[in-house]
Every structure is written in structure tokens, then in C-alpha cells.
Amino acid sequence: MTYTLSRASRAVGLAIAVLGLVATGMLLAQSHPASAGTSVPTLDHFLCYQARETGIKAPPNVLLQNKIQPNPFAPTFGAASSHCNPANKKLASGRVFTSKNPLGHLLCFTIKFGAPPVTVLLANQFGKAVMVTGPPTRFCLPSWKSNVAPPNMPIPAPPRLDHFTCYPLKALAASYGFKPVGAKGEDEFSAPKYVPLRMGVANLLCVPTTKIVAGVVSAPQGPNDLSLTCFPTQPTPIWKLVFDQNQFGEARVFPLVDNEEFCVPSTVSVRGVPG
After folding, report:
1. Contact 257, 190 (CB under 8 A)
2. Does any domain span residue 37?
3. Residue at 43 is within a domain
4. How many domains does the chain have?
């Protein structure tokens, strides 16, 4: 199928989604980059959906580097496998945390690379937990999203959002203190309705990552950038087709109802390799 919509029409596709969320409380707020070493940039909550896609692939020889793997490494990339929407969160108390960057989505690719387990201390609005990471399984790129046609934006990725490498998590029973009870979420797929999030044990940690491709470096916004701790949750409403654009290209993305996750901004302290 060939799409011949104008750039203005594609921009409308982006605006429609954002306006729908603004109308229900997802505020399009101006966020300022953090000064290096001082403040922490804002990071949204995300609802992430398993997805299949067509039209995009990672370039060769991508190097990654982050606090879990401080030495640059070159993973093997597979297909894009999940799409993440910025989301609002409502607690049982009625307190609402709204998105500050509703145009900033994530498209995540499967990756493979050997890495030793690392013990990390995670802290977020659900509590604290000491957990152990496994080898990385996903790499997420900041992405534009449209629901009508490829975004075709003049810059390849939305600002104020890092790249992330994601690591599976293993819980240490005596040190697991997350209590994600009674929370509801709202994203572009469910707006204007908040839906219950019956979350399980945290299963994924996504940390800000430097990406290097052909000598071009895409670094995190600052040294204190937040990470994402992701919890499996029951299915929520989906759109069957969206269009993503990022530094790897443009893709048609088909969200699926299986293996959904709710990801929460978190601080991460690396404790080291388990003894």
C-alpha cells in the first residue's frame, strides 16, 4: 500500500493523539534539559506493547554503553518487538502523574549479547528492591508515532528522551519491596479512560544508554537520567496499526495484546556482580 499524505496530514496524525490525551489530563508541558550533574530530567511512565513491524532494521555495527555495561559492546540486533506509549498513572489515593513529553514514544528491538549478572538497587514510587539483571534483551529508541501515516518528521527522533538498553530482572525475595497495588494507567490507546493495572513482579530494567553508529554518538541527556523498571500487566486497549519514526528509519507497527508491561521511572544503584 502506498501512502501519499502530505507532511501536514502526517502532523495532524501526531496532533490527534496528543490532543486526545491533553483533553483527558495528559499535559503537554515544556520540560527543560537537566544541567549536567545537578538535576534529574523528567521521564514519563510508559505502557509497552509486544508488537510486530515492517519496514525498519538496525544498521550494522551499533555500539552501546551504559551503567550496567560500562564498556562499549556490539549486540546482535533482531526485529523491533515492542512499542511503548507515554502514560498517565493514577494511584489508589487519587493522585495522578501526567506525561510531560507525550510525543516521546519508544520502539524496542530484540538484542543478544553475553553479560554477567549484576546486582542493582531500584527505587521508584512503588518502593525499593534489590534485584539481579540478566543479559540484555532489548534496545529502545526514542520514536515519533502517528496513527495515520509515517510521521516524516524533520528530525529523526523526539527530543528530551534517552535511548535505553533493557535487562531481565530476577527478584531476591528478602529484598523485594515493590508494591504496585491499585494503580491505573491511561495512554493514547485507552484515552479517555483509565484502566486498572494488575501488575506482577518487576521483570525488566531499562537504563539510559549511549548509542554509537558510524562514529555518531547519541548520549543520554545527563548523568542523572532516570531508568525504567517494568512490571508485567494484564492487557489494556490497543490500536492495531501505528507508524513509528526514529534514527533507524520508519516502520509500520502492529501492537499485540500479549505480554504488556507498565514501566515506571526509577533510580538505579549498581551494587556489582553477585558473589
Report:
1. no
2. no
3. no
4. 1
